[in-house]
Write a structure and sequence with these properties.
285 residues; alpha/beta; Rossmann fold; 10-stranded mixed sheet; 15 strands; 15% helix; globular
Length: 285
């Protein structure tokens, strides 16, 4: 299942339909209202939004906390069993927030969750080998790109050392070691061929042009096979649009509830039930 998280930063264009759940994070609510997006929950301490939206679908966080609002939203999605997460607005603004959200992608990869983060120019995704994944199932090891992709693609190690194989790009590698101390993988290039980036050992960050979206980008071992990640469907038609005119009473989580929520405990009325969602076929390259 696909969860979209909309934060307050920058991103390119519109958010495609076809997701199962949408979380507006603090100032990301403005992006949702401007695009009339139907979202399911609003999360944040609301320092960037400037006011607290009042609704039963609002989770207000304390301003003094160890996790960012976006990381809390990611934790919420993980607790509710989403296996693919797309973050919009996770870059721009303070560079420290951008770096924190890149680290969050690494955290998602460690949970074996397919991840994308969109900014104005590039999409980022992180993949990791089993020793860096803390769950007992096959890891996403490779990202494949269809032949129509153009422009530059960069690959960076998120570990001190990672071993990668790159095929079908201008510069290919075969079981090569890249490190986090030297940007060896900067500005490779699509050349009109099917291509792939595979991590043999370690954890890697991949960035490619945002105008191509996630369509035609296949995470081998993900739950959705060769189909485009986001497609038009009917599921979002039943979602409620919340705006300034239909907010109701809200409450702030106390410290115990906040701690329980971070630990994945159920809070009445806030847990998204994915118990009966059928699993799709898994494809491995």
């Amino acid at each position: 299942m696909i969860c979209v998280i909309v934060s307050a930063g920058d991103f390119h264009g519109e958010i495609p339909a076809g997701f199962d759940f949408l979380i507006a994070v603090d100032g990301g609510l403005k992006h949702c209202l401007a695009r009339r997006l139907k979202y399911d929950v609003i999360i944040g301490d609301f320092d960037s939004l400037g006011y607290v939206p009042v609704s039963e679908n609002v989770i207000q966080l304390p301003q003094d906390k160890n996790e960012s609002d976006t990381f809390f939203a990611v934790s919420y999605a993980i607790d509710n069993r989403f296996d693919e997460i797309h973050i919009f607005g996770g870059t721009g603004g303070r560079n420290s927030h951008t770096l924190a959200n890149i680290q969050t992608l690494k955290y998602l990869a460690s949970k074996n969750i397919v991840n994308f983060m969109y900014d104005k120019e590039e999409i980022y995704t992180v993949i990791a080998t089993p020793k860096d994944v803390d769950i007992s199932k096959k890891s996403v090891l490779k990202v494949k790109f269809t032949e129509e992709k153009k422009g530059f693609i960069s690959v960076f190690s998120s570990n001190p050392e990672s071993v990668v194989t790159i095929k079908g790009l201008k510069y290919e590698l075969d079981n090569a070691v890249i490190t986090d101390k030297y940007p060896y993988g900067l500005s490779n290039e699509f050349i009109g061929k099917e291509s792939s980036v595979e991590v043999i050992d370690g954890t890697i960050l991949i960035g490619y042009p945002v105008e191509y979206g996630s369509k035609g980008v296949i995470h081998c071992g993900s739950e959705y096979g060769d189909e485009p990640v986001l497609q038009e469907n009917e599921k979002i038609q039943n979602r409620i649009i919340l705006d300034e005119n239909n907010f109701t009473e809200n409450r702030v989580l106390n410290e115990d509830e906040f701690a329980e929520f971070l630990l994945g405990e159920e809070l009445a009325g806030l847990e998204f039930n994915a118990e009966d969602t059928p699993e799709s076929d898994t494809r491995w390259c």
